[in-house]
Amino acid sequence: MNPFQAIQYVGTPLALVAFLVAVAAYAYRHRLVERRKLIETAPEAERARLLDATLRDFTTVNTETLTREQRYQLAQRLIDERAARTRIMALVGVGVALILAVVVLAMPSAGSAQRALVVRVSDETGAFLTTGTVTLDAGEARDTRAIGADGQVRFENIPEAAYRQGVTLHPQVSGFATTPSTITATPAGGVHYLRLARIDSPLFGTVIDSARAAVPGVILSFEGGLAVDTTDAQGTFRVALPRPPGSRVAVRAVRAGVVGFNDMVTIPERESLTIFFDGRS
Q1: I need a labelling partner for 219 at 20 to 30 A (CA). Which of 31, 91, 197, 229 fits?
Q2: How far apart (Å, rounded) are the C-alpha atoms in residues 226 and 207?
Q3: How far apart are CA 207 and CA 273, in angstroms?
Q4: Rounded (5°) CA angle 92-21-33
Q5: 169: Cβ–Cβ under 8 A, 6 or more apart, which residues?
């Protein structure tokens, strides 16, 4: 490989200096080779002048006592020695440039540095959520992980350059909005807080007595008054609770001052709930 083939690997100031040294040595060696050829092919009269000039340039030894043949051989040897030294210098320069290029390529750049991303998932009040999943979408990288018991999700080896393109988080938690969140800068400390909004679950059904007849006028209080409704003539009710389906909620049913039900129920998913009212309580 000559220095001009190595130019593609130049990427640092030191490598550039090494490359320039190699180019200078390569050019000087080329001139020496051309000078040797010129001496060999020059006419006899011209060769004497070229020999004198070469010996003056390359040595301080008095050559007047040497024969023409000796002077010719000395000039050739001096040229060959200098050409060999410059060839070594050129090879060393190319080698140093390549080594520096390899070192630079091996070192991670600021844009390719990777670090973990911790996502802390909570509701509007700041209480951590401990169920569901979060999907990370960073272009070619996509990963889905479960929310831990500490309300956190940890994604490893996220390139810092990915944030410039946007790292999007897709939460999937029952009873909460699944609005994506996009991060466009590396979060402080590698931690991103993802606060989710609750989605109210519809809770509807019928209140009946022991004879399975509808009971109108029953006041139903859910979760200590979080949602309240009164049954109509058909004994039906409908409320909305900020709880996901499957949650257990407290229900208190009162009619004409009589508590006919005071217990926990499970919010069904798109199904009617039946509450038995015991008017003897």
Answers
A1: 197
A2: 19
A3: 9
A4: 80
A5: 119, 134, 135, 136, 137, 180, 181, 182, 183, 192, 194
Domains of the chain and CATH, by start: 6-106 (no CATH), 111-195 (2.60.40.10), 201-276 (2.60.40.1120)
Q: Distance of CA 151 to CAs 116, 126, 156, Å?
A: 16, 11, 17
Q: Residues of 165-190 as b/e, b for ≥16 C-beta within 10 angstroms?
A: eebbbebebebbeeeebebeebeeee
Three-state secondary structure readout of 229-275: EECCCCCEEEEEECCCCCCEEEEEEEECCEEEEEEEEECCCCCCEEE
Q: Which two tokens stand for residue 14?
A: 């030191």
Which two tokens mark 85? 């030294």
Q: What is the DSSP string of 204-234?
A: EEEEE-TT--B--S-EEEETTTTEEEE--TT
What is the predicted pLDDT for the residue at 242? 84
- pLDDT tens across 191-241, in order? 999 999 888 889 999 999 999 999 999 999 999 999 999 999 999 999 999
pLDDT, one tens digit per residue, over 90-109 is 667 667 666 766 665 555 55
What are the tokens at 177?
A: 């909005």
